[in-house]
Amino acid sequence: MMMAMNGKAHFSSALDSMRRVCLNSPQVRANIFAGFDESMLAAADLASSCHAAFKPDASHHAAAAAMATHAHTHAHGVGGLGPPPPHPPSSLEAELLEHLSSSLVDVHAPLHAHHHHHLHAQLPAPPTPLAPPPPPTAAVHVESDPRELEAFAERFKQRRVKLGVTQADVGAALASLNMPGVGALSQSTICRFESLTLSHNNMIALRPVLQAWLDEAEAERRRANGANGSAPLGGLGSERKRKRTSIAAPEKRSLEAYFAIQPRPSSEKIAAIAEKLELKKNVVRVWFCNQRQKQKRMKYSAAH
DNA sequence: ATGCATGAGCT
DNA sequence: GCTCATGCATA
Questions:
Q1: Which nucleotide, over all strands, has the C1' atom closest to the CA of A25?
Q2: Distance A38 CA to C2 C1' (A)
Q3: Which of A115, A108, A149, A145 has its CA nearest to residue A129?
Q4: N or C: which end of chain A has fewer CB within 10 A?
């Protein structure tokens, strides 16, 4: 793997403007029957403990979530990368989920249309240009064709590597690009861009910026092509470190099971889950948030 | 390359 | 308290 240090400030940017416009979250208050809580927790527990050989993350979530929420057919799936695991839904787990989810949709189901609508309104929508994409600053070329995007990401990586520049370097270099409102980015973000693991909107917003960097970098390369050794990047003295809590495998499995049944647990449920798993409530809450976000990420393979 | 976390803006 | 963009720390 490529590794590089990276330490700098971050300033929110012109990308913000784009965010704002595209931003508009739904909020499906689905606190249907409460008496279900107990069985839900128990069910998830059961499911997590008798789990079989399952997924490398995303695919599982996608599948499970799809089951739980019935037909959640979005244009952008999650684990598009991995091979679609063709599972025999004959496991106890599957039975459980099916039962629970069907109950959920049977009672009241105004959620689907709602959720859908919002999502579409939120995205620049590649197939249907509903909202005029707010041009941040630079390139006003918003051909949000997923295909193009994917191609660009790959080209980008290829050329970046050719230039012998690390992801961290690129992120840092963006600041020197002096694009209005565009500051530096982290290695993480560059990496995620290259692997298409950012939200669609995020990809669209970042593309022009990275394009600009690439152009600049290659131009500079041609310019100074005589004899150049290297450009050592200074390291910064680190201050206080931050600790990252790590959720153990068994707990993680339980969380995944809960998530499959109810991706948006209420505060109370979160508290209950936290207590059961002996985790801090906030850790559980954040875990669910991240899980949801993960689910929303793009990752196409053969989907387009 | 990814997991857990923060912070902004919104409801 | 959620979503989203983003990042530090780490496997």
A1: C3
A2: 24
A3: A145
A4: N
